[in-house]
Amino acid sequence: MNVRHAAIACSAVLLITSCSTNEANRPTASAAPTTTSAVQQPGDVAKQQATAAYLGMWKDMADAATTSDWQSPKLAQNATSDALQTISRSLYADHYNGLITKGRPLNHPRVEAVEPPADPTSVTIADCGDSTSWLKYRADNGQPADDGPGGRRQIEALVKKAVDGSWKVTTFAVHEVGSCSG
Amino acid sequence: MLRVTRTAASTAIACGLVLALAPAAVADGWGNVHCGQGGNPSCELGAGRGGASKPQPPSAPGKPGAPRPAPGQQPPSGDSIIGGKDTAAHCSYVRSNYQPPANGVQTVARRTRPRMGVLAAFVPAQAGGAWYVYRCSGPGVHDGLYRAPVWLPDGQVPAEATLPSPQELAEQARAQLRLPSPRIQANPVGEKLVSLPTWLWLDRSSWDAQRATAAVPGVSVTAVATPTSVSWSMGDGENVSCSGPGTPFSAGRNPAAASPDCGHTYHRSSASAPAHQFAVRATVHWTVAWSGAGASGTFPDMTTSGSAAFRVAEVQALGTGNR
Which of A14, B40, B285, B296 might form a disulfide with B291, Cβ 3.0–4.6 angstroms? Predict the structure, then answer.
């Protein structure tokens, strides 16, 4: 494996993806409607459903993580595509290592972008997730898995409307402990 | 198209290897999925917001720095990656039986958006290959745990990647054993009495051999844990060893007779103990053996324990309400 080429390839990927991300985010600041009327805008429903899916995804993961059940059908309720597979692989690693996770994460999601505003099919969510009470333990003796404490992690997630009308998280990025506050 | 796919695949593998050098996971629920763990390829989401999405150096104070790849340096051999001066990291891969969830699979045909295209290479449609768990070590860094599985096509499996040895599979099976905690039963059911034999036994549901199997295609190893004895700490300073779970007391038996195989007779009341109760603890010893893939062996014994509180009264105190 040529590392130099690998690093260049990765940088190129990051360049490409950052461009596309910027493009996706640009219109949101001005286009997001501010709701002053009592009538629910399409964007409001989308925001609610996307946020529910986002929170549901972590709840489903926390449920499955109590036994590291990487094959739990519940995982597909609110997540699909990369998001689903990342969670499944994470739980497989825990299962493989003989670890389980106890507790719940604490989430504070806020909607960052809604696309397209008239008939939303894609919602970007940002969160400062707190894992202080969501930690791993050895399944055989209940001892804490590591000395590392949990903490607050910056999270971004993309939630999309499927053809059946349901909203599911398609991809997410969870950053280091300490990457956000508040 | 084929060529594009291959390029994407090798890019993803390369990125995976780079990501493999990220800091060790923090033991919280997101420890395996955070950016830079190699477990989550989706981290371009925040790329437009301050660049926090790239693999991060370790942020936990006091933790050793993970080796990071430095473009321009050549790897010494095989899969080792130079990350600056004398910071080579070695990753070992073990083939796993991981299968992705059906709707988590991104087939090549679905790669309609360029930004998702790279990610698709982590999950090829049906190409030859397998999922590998892996762990890395380098100066100051040693993965104690395996990281989330990555897909490696057959042609790109690192030289060190192997089928797990029977011993490695056995270790995995052992880690998956779930031993039940013993549930303490005793007679008399409520208050025990000084000088009257107390029968001790464990609920039979916590006294079955437990087994777990770890397998990859073609190889399977089973670990079996068998309960063999119980150590009872009776709370009055006495310890009792029993070679089995103990005989349950049943109606019709003489309550003044001692258990044939597991019991204790208190010689003082628990009145002076904390909360006027003796803290009783039963520790079950399990032998753990494994076999499969043409090999067999044993692991160190495991133990489980359960506790109960026994109130022990002097006989003359019965029913008087006095001590």
Answer: B296
